[in-house]
C-alpha cells in the first residue's frame, strides 16, 4: 500500500492563484495537521485531496481503500434518521454496527431521530460515527472543532482521537488552532504566503500518549513562541 | 390547528352554497339554477354522468403523469447544469408563453382528432410549468450534501434516492398541485374541441341545449374528484415527505 502523496503545483480561483507548490508525502497511518490562518486555503487543499475539486495543476495519490471526511458542518441528510444516515453510506456495515457506533459517541437514544430534531453537537457526533462506520484508509477533517465551546471541544477532540485510533487511518485535518494541531497531530504542515504554500513541515516530538495539556502547551510555546 | 381549519373550510363552502341558493331564489331564472336543480340534473344523467367523469379523469391522469415525468427530467437537468439551462432556457420561455389553445389546435391539426393528440396537447401545455418549477429545485440543491455524497462514494442511484429527490420533494409538491389544477381545465377544452366524450364534451353538448343545470352538475362533479385527489393523495404524501422537518 502506498502513502498519501500530495504534489500540487497550482490552484486558481477566478484568475487568482490561491495555492502554490504544496508537496508532502504522508506515511500510512500518520496524522497530519494543516495549520494556517483562516482563509489561507486549507479547505481548498482538502477539497483537492478529497477529489471533490479536480481543477488544479498537479496530482494527489491517496492510499487505496475508502475515504471519509468530517466537515465543518455535520452534512447529514436531514430527511434520514441518524442511523439511516450511517447505513446508507457505502462501506458501512449492517444496522447493529451503526447503532453500536452511535452508542460509542453517546447517541444510543437518538439513533432514530432526524438530524434537525437533535442538537448541533449531537449531529457533529453522528458525523464522526459516520466517518468511523466506513473503516476509511484516509480520514480528512476540515476544522472539526471550530465554533465549539471549550468543554464541547474537549469532548469532540476525545471522539476524534477515538475515530483515528479505531480506523488507524491516514488522517489530515485543517485547523487554525496551534494547540489543537499539536494535540491531535504527529506532524504539522504550516501553510502561509500568497499563493499559499507549505512554509514549515515539522514532526511532533511528543508520542500520541504524551499529548496532554501541559506538554502540548509547552511545545506550542517552544515552536511558536508566546 | 388542522381541525379548526377544515371546520372553517366547511363553513366557508356552506356560505357559498347559501349565497348561490339565495341568488337562484331571487332571480328565478333558468340560467342560474339552484343547488337542488343542479343535483337533479346530475341524477337525470344517470350512469352517463359517471362514465364522462371517468373518461376525463383518465385523460387528466395520463396527461398529468406524462407532464410530471418529462417536465421534471427537463427541469432537473436544467437546474443542475448551466450549459443545459443556457441552451434550452429560450425554449422554456417560448413554451411557457404558448397559449394552450394554440397547442391544442396544432396537435389536432398535425395528429388528427385522436386520443394521443388530446393527451399530448395537454401534456405539452403543462411540461414547461413543471420544468420551470423543478429547475428552481435543481438550482437550490445543496452543494454541501453533493460533496458529502461524492466523498463517501454514493452510487448514482443512491444519490438520487437519498440526496437529490428528497430535496426536490417540495418542488414536486408545488408542481403537482399547480399541475392538477391546470391540467384538468385544459383537458376540458381539449374535449370540447375534439373528443366525443368526457366532461368537456358534455359541457359543450349541454351548452347547445342551454341546460345550465347539467353544465354545473358536470363541472361540480369534477371539482369534487379533484379535491378528493388533493386531500386524499397529495396532502398525505406531502405530510409524509415533510416528517423530518423540525
What does this protein look like?
The complex is a heterodimer of chains A (226) and B (246). Chain A is of the alpha/beta class and 226 residues long. Helices cover 34% and strands 25% of the residues of chain A. Chain A is built from seven helices and ten strands. Chain A has helices spanning 42-50, 82-87, 95-104, 120-133, 150-167, 178-184, 213-224; strands at 4-13, 16-19, 22-26, 31-35, 57-61, 67-70, 138-142, 170-175, 187-192, 197-203. In chain A, strands 6-7-8-4-9-10 form a six-stranded mixed β-sheet, with helices on both faces. In chain A, strands 1, 2, 3 and 5 form a four-stranded antiparallel β-sheet that branches. In chain A, a hairpin with a 4-residue loop joins strand 9 and strand 10 (197-203). The longest helix of chain A has 18 residues, at 150-167. Chain A starts with a strand and ends with a helix. Chain B has 246 residues and is mainly α. Chain B is 87% helix and 0% strand. Chain B is built from ten helices and no strands. Chain B has helices spanning 2-27, 35-45, 47-80, 82-97, 100-111, 115-139, 143-151, 156-194, 199-209, 212-241. Chain B is globular. The model of chain B has no long low-confidence stretch (mean pLDDT 90). At the A-B interface, strand 6 of A face helix 7 and helix 8 of B.
Amino acid at each position: 500500500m502506498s502513502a498519501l502523496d500530495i504534489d500540487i503545483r497550482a490552484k486558481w480561483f477566478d484568475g487568482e492563484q490561491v495555492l502554490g507548490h504544496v508537496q508532502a508525502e504522508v506515511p500510512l497511518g500518520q496524522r497530519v495537521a494543516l495549520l494556517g490562518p483562516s482563509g489561507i486555503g486549507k479547505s481548498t487543499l482538502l477539497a483537492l485531496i478529497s477529489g471533490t475539486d479536480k481543477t488544479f495543476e498537479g496530482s494527489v495519490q491517496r492510499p487505496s481503500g475508502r475515504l471519509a471526511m468530517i466537515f465543518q458542518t455535520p452534512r447529514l441528510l436531514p430527511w434520514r434518521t441518524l442511523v439511516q444516515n450511517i447505513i446508507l453510506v457505502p462501506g458501512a456495515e449492517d444496522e447493529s454496527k451503526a447503532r453500536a457506533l452511535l452508542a460509542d459517541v453517546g447517541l444510543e437514544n437518538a439513533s432514530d431521530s432526524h438530524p434537525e430534531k437533535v442538537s448541533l453537537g449531537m449531529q457533529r457526533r453522528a458525523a464522526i460515527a459516520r466517518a468511523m462506520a466506513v473503516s476509511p484508509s484516509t480520514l480528512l477533517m476540515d476544522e472539526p472543532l471550530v465554533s465549539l465551546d471549550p468543554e464541547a471541544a474537549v469532548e469532540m477532540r476525545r471522539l476524534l482521537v477515538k475515530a483515528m485510533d479505531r480506523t488507524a487511518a491516514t488522517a489530515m485535518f485543517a485547523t487554525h488552532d496551534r494547540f489543537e494541531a499539536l494535540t491531535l497531530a504527529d506532524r504539522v504542515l504550516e501553510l502561509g504566503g500568497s499563493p499559499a504554500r507549505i512554509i514549515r513541515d515539522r514532526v511532533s516530538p511528543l508520542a500520541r500518549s504524551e499529548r496532554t495539556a501541559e506538554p502540548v502547551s509547552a511545545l506550542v510555546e517552544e515552536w511558536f513562541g508566546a | 390547528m388542522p381541525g379548526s381549519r377544515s371546520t372553517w373550510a366547511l363553513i366557508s363552502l356552506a356560505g357559498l352554497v347559501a349565497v348561490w341558493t339565495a341568488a337562484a331564489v331571487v332571480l328565478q331564472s333558468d340560467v342560474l339554477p339552484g343547488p337542488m336543480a343542479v343535483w337533479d340534473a346530475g341524477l337525470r344523467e344517470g350512469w352517463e354522468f359517471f362514465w364522462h367523469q371517468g373518461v376525463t379523469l383518465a385523460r387528466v391522469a395520463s396527461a398529468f403523469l406524462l407532464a410530471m415525468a418529462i417536465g421534471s427530467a427537463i427541469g432537473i437537468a436544467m437546474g443542475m447544469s448551466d450549459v443545459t439551462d443556457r441552451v434550452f432556457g429560450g425554449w422554456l420561455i417560448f413554451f411557457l408563453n404558448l397559449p394552450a389553445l394554440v397547442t391544442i389546435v396544432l396537435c389536432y391539426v398535425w395528429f388528427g382528432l385522436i386520443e394521443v393528440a388530446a393527451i399530448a396537447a395537454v401534456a405539452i401545455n403543462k411540461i414547461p410549468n413543471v420544468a420551470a418549477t423543478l429547475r428552481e429545485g435543481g438550482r437550490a440543491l445543496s452543494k454541501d450534501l453533493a460533496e458529502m455524497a461524492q466523498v463517501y462514494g454514493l452510487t448514482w442511484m443512491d444519490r438520487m434516492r437519498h440526496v437529490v429527490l428528497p430535496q426536490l420533494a417540495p418542488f414536486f409538491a408545488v408542481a403537482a398541485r399547480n399541475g392538477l389544477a391546470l391540467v384538468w381545465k385544459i383537458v376540458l377544452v381539449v374535449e370540447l374541441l375534439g373528443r366525443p366524450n368526457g366532461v368537456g364534451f358534455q359541457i359543450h353538448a349541454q351548452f347547445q341545449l342551454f341546460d345550465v343545470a347539467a353544465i354545473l352538475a358536470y363541472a361540480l362533479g369534477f371539482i369534487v374528484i379533484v379535491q378528493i385527489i388533493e386531500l386524499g393523495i397529495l396532502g398525505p404524501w406531502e405530510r409524509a415527505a415533510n416528517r423530518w422537518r423540525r
